[in-house]
Design a protein that fits this description.
The chain is globular. It has helices at residues 13-49, 54-96, 104-142, 145-151, 156-194, 199-206, 212-238, 244-276. The protein has 281 residues and is mostly helical. The chain is built from eight helices and no strands. Helix 5 crosses helix 7. The protein has one domain (60-276).
Length: 281
């Protein structure tokens, strides 16, 4: 039969060509994804490799720390205040039914310290500081500044990426205290002022479930999340397409990818933390 030669039974020649084209497209996308993941890991490891040469990147590190802190400190406070208030309001309504209003402070502070603080800091760093990093690195790429640095025997990853990695991780750990403080203030207002719980009960419950390991894990999370946000931002900026549209797409992709990786890392670290340090009851 002329229509059935060279094609699978039940599939015409045109459908067979469509299936083959689909397979080729999926194979190319898979190869491109694996290649991009490899480039991300190479950029991160190479940026971390020259950490010991502090004198080379110290000035850029201070500048980036100041910039990231300036663009994230106020927004993270404005986010933490309603977050703490929302947690306090919702938990307070539940525990009031069982007569345990004093436990609201413990729930608010435990949630802020273990989950909300590092996540809020990471998302603000990736959204505000990370987008600026991506656009800066993308602008350097389309102006051929990165290639010019390589011509002058200057590794652009060591000179530009390394200080940004450490600046984002440092500011991320420092922002945790701001998030916790603002969240506790928001929870205090809703729990004490609005719901009538005594201040002593609120703060006594706030410290009943916390341990030193919780704070250490939180700071470690914030450090890792900041490192991830800066790595993704620098990677997308240094490998963006030429032109303003390429830089804009790189900024958008960097924020989305950083958020996804931060949530995945948070799940892994939280699971390991609960196994190694079971929560106090």
């Amino acid at each position: 039969m002329a229509g059935s030669s060279g094609a699978s039974p039940g599939i015409g020649p045109r459908a067979g060509r469509g299936v083959a084209a689909g397979r080729d497209f999926l194979r190319r996308r898979a190869d491109g994804t694996v290649h991009q993941i490899g480039v991300l890991f190479v950029t991160t490891i190479e940026g971390f490799r020259k950490t010991w040469n502090v004198r080379q990147w110290w000035g850029e590190y201070i500048e980036q720390c100041y910039f990231i802190a300036r663009v994230t400190a106020l927004p993270v406070m404005l986010i933490a205040l309603p977050l703490g208030g929302t947690i306090s309001l919702q938990v307070g309504q539940i525990v009031r039914q069982i007569g345990a209003q004093s436990g609201t402070g413990a729930a608010v502070v435990q949630a802020l310290v273990t989950q909300v603080a590092p996540m809020a800091a990471a998302l603000l760093i990736s959204g505000a500081g990370g987008s600026a990093m991506t656009s800066d690195m993308g602008a350097r790429r389309i102006r051929d500044e990165l290639d010019a640095m390589e011509v002058m025997a200057i590794n652009p990853i060591h000179r530009l990426v390394t200080p940004r990695l450490w600046a984002a991780s440092t500011v991320g750990a420092m922002l945790c205290s701001v998030v916790i403080l603002a969240g506790v203030v928001g929870g205090y207002y809703f729990n004490v002022v609005q719901q009538g719980v005594t201040p002593g009960s609120y703060f006594d419950g706030a410290t009943s479930l916390l341990r030193l390991s919780d704070l250490v894990i939180t700071l470690f999370k914030a450090w890792v999340f900041g490192f991830i946000a800066a790595s993704v931002a620098c990677w997308k900026g240094m490998n963006c397409a030429y032109g303003p549209n390429g830089v804009g797409r790189a900024v958008n992709q960097a924020v989305v990818i950083a958020a996804l990786l931060v949530f995945a890392a948070n799940y892994v670290i939280s699971t390991l933390a609960y196994v190694l340090f079971p929560p106090r009851t």
